[in-house]
Amino acid sequence: MRTSAVFAAALSLVSFAAANSPVSQTYPPPQVWKNANLVHIISAEKNYVKENINVLIENIAKQPQDEYFLPFTTDQLARLGGVEVKDRKDAKAGPFVAEIVEVDPKRNTQYLRIQLPTPLKPGAQQTIGISYYLLDAYKPLPATINIEDPQFLSYSFSAYCPSAYTTSKQKTEVKFAFSNIPDYTRLPGSGDVAEFPVKQGAKLTYGPFDEKAAGAVEPVQVRFEFNRPVNHVADLERDVEVSHWGGNVAFEERYTWIQGGANLTNHFSRVKYQHFRLPTWHILREMRFPLRVGSSDPYYTDVIGNISTSHFRSNKREALLEIKPRYPLFGGWKFPFTIGWNSDAQNFLRKTATGGYVLNVPFLEGPRQAEGVEYEHVQVRVILPEGAENVKYTTTIPSSSIVSAKVVIHKTFLDSVGRTSLVIKARNLVDDFRDRELVVSYDYPLTASLRKPIVVIASSMAFFAGIWLLGNLNLQFSK
């Protein structure tokens, strides 16, 4: 699915990594580590894949080491997002720095470099947890179905966790949303287990496996039932506009939504759709947007105009916007739409002791769906008041997903020089990052705050003065 887009994204990421990585990477990485024990957990419970690698690493070199490498294929790299690495036994250690090293475009294997906060001495061990997401991970199998048929997806991966180092002991667990898993690759077992994987309800377990060399892979494929929509947002443009004079923060989100499930074999039939209207089918009928308490004035439009199939519930405990697409979304269908709302600035904005301002808003909100939502490209634009300066930001979104950030000028109504805007572009995010913070600090001088009323007053006076001058002009011809 979306092969050309994935290939273009891969090339883009390779270029970005090459431009930002401080050193190049040798192939393969030096064998200075050994994976003493590794547990690879793959979650296919939502319409994206989340992988967790919990590994006990051991320094087998003669010098202290602080760089650990994790391999990915070029195709995986284009769909990789949300990388976070932590110490499994020390929560206070914080996330480690993880970045793509300078890559060789001619090779299919690229590497993620993980920087340990403290070098490990020879013979020392440390347990680290690596988590990341893979978007556009499934293929519908069969690719087309009838409206009343269940939907099955397939996922291909390696029963051995890909590693740049020798692994002494490992196993791979795969979790699904439904227990109906009709097809999966079988491997010879070991010990008391005659065959891998071992199936327990909605989980498959490959392993444990004995020692495997660096780079060892065992391709397997799993076909499983996924009777839910496959929600893919190709583009999300999110605007956050701050108004000091109005005491308001306005939000607007523009979506390019694609249903990535199995396509319909035949043309859409309204009769069949009404007849087989079941809550668990793979058709997207509605979305639920939990907003901050106190949100107001929501709107919901598409390229045609206002859409009336929405409901907004707001009270002291919640603010929930429920919307229905203009038409039900089947596999392969696309739906661009826009939502927006307002909120009191006091919920997000505060003034510092030094006279500056700090804005704290969610980097990503979006709908909360049981089946999950993946975002390929995200642009967040924070539009600050005219004259704002010294703009800085921090975010709890993984740095590996941030593509660029810059401050630009955005011109709109009644502006003289334009509003200062922070534009952040990210890629390959999922709804697990809903409500991660985006904190923006800036200065707003008194002269800047007075600019707009002065401009409005001066413009009004100039307008009326012009009218008065025109009224006093004598246009008669003299005798």
UniProtKB/TrEMBL annotation:
Superkingdom to which the source organism belongs: Eukaryota
Keyword Repressor listed: no
Places the protein is found: Endoplasmic reticulum membrane
Signal peptide start-end: 1-19
Pfam family, one: Ribophorin_I
Keywords from the named record: Endoplasmic reticulum, Membrane, Signal, Transmembrane, Transmembrane helix
Known pathway: Protein modification; protein glycosylation
InterPro entries: Ribophorin_I
GO cellular component entries: oligosaccharyltransferase complex
Annotated transmembrane regions: 454-475
Membrane topology: Single-pass type I membrane protein
GO biological process: protein N-linked glycosylation via asparagine
Function statement: Subunit of the oligosaccharyl transferase (OST) complex that catalyzes the initial transfer of a defined glycan (Glc(3)Man(9)GlcNAc(2) in eukaryotes) from the lipid carrier dolichol-pyrophosphate to an asparagine residue within an Asn-X-Ser/Thr consensus motif in nascent polypeptide chains, the first step in protein N-glycosylation. N-glycosylation occurs cotranslationally and the complex associates with the Sec61 complex at the channel-forming translocon complex that mediates protein translocation across the endoplasmic reticulum (ER). All subunits are required for a maximal enzyme activity.
Assembly information from the UniProt record: Component of the oligosaccharyltransferase (OST) complex.
Record family assignment: Belongs to the OST1 family.
Name of the featured protein: Dolichyl-diphosphooligosaccharide--protein glycosyltransferase subunit 1
Native source species: Schizothecium vesticola
